[in-house]
Design a protein that fits this description.
The chain has 240 residues and is an alpha/beta fold. Helices cover 45% and strands 15% of the residues.
């Protein structure tokens, strides 16, 4: 539960959140928290023109096209350039789990992300940008040895995309952790209530995955997960 001071800080801020379907889950989590806590008087507005929304608000909108991470970066930059960046406030956007596959050039996606963020930071020094890790999916181990052999790179197990997501997330943490705010969706999704984390081993590396109790379809966040993610997001935003 958020403290009175965190809520006081939060309801005075102007925030823009660009996303797709997992972002919808998180925004619904915010709405759930608002419904449950009368202190939490956040004005949640759906609009791709956040600069036109008066006063303090959490403005959210879909950005870009799924399976095309560059389109999301481009859309976010375009929206911020319409006026929100000059106004100042907090802005964040996230890629979706579906933007990463076994064939994704993760380093290229990350370099383009950093380039876009760097451009906005230089242009709008009063704008606070929050970095988001990529959501994960639930691990889907093969049913038998024959399937494992046939899979080769384990594509049919659904594991390769999580390898790509974990690679991007580690690049992002290495670049920004400790110096700029990060909304670590992947850590939230993979951490169980007892503090343990869901993962599989890829060589010597731990590849984190969505905890089964946080999803009903393996990718989207269910009610339990979305409220947890929403609360952690609001706590983060309240301190900026």
């Amino acid at each position: 539960m958020l403290t009175d001071q965190q809520i006081k800080n939060l309801i005075s801020k102007r925030i823009f959140f660009g996303h797709q379907s997992v972002g919808d889950n998180i925004v619904q989590g915010v709405r759930d928290l608002i419904s449950a806590d009368p202190r939490l008087k956040i004005n949640v507005v759906t609009s791709a023109d956040p600069q036109s929304v008066p006063g303090a608000a959490l403005v959210e909108s879909h950005v870009g096209i799924n399976r095309n991470p560059q389109s999301k970066t481009d859309a976010f930059i375009e929206i911020v350039n319409r006026g929100f960046g000059a106004q100042g406030g907090i802005a964040l956007y996230k890629y979706c789990y579906i933007d990463f596959s076994s064939s994704t050039d993760v380093l290229s996606v990350f370099e383009n992300y950093c380039k876009g963020i760097g451009t906005l930071r230089q242009k709008y020094p009063s704008l606070t940008i929050v970095h988001c890790t990529v959501p994960l999916t639930m691990d889907e181990p093969g049913r038998n040895l024959r399937e494992r052999i046939r899979s080769g790179l384990r594509k049919i197990l659904g594991r390769d995309p999580n390898v790509s997501r974990n690679k991007f997330n580690q690049l992002l943490r290495n670049a920004y952790a400790g110096t700029e705010p990060i909304f670590d969706i992947a850590e939230i999704e993979s951490t169980r209530a007892n503090g343990s984390r869901c993962y599989f081993k890829w060589g010597r590396q731990k590849i984190y995955t969505m905890a089964p109790e946080f999803t009903t379809d393996g990718g989207h966040i269910n009610e339990i997960g979305r409220r947890s993610a929403a609360e952690k997001l609001l706590v983060l935003l309240s301190g900026l």
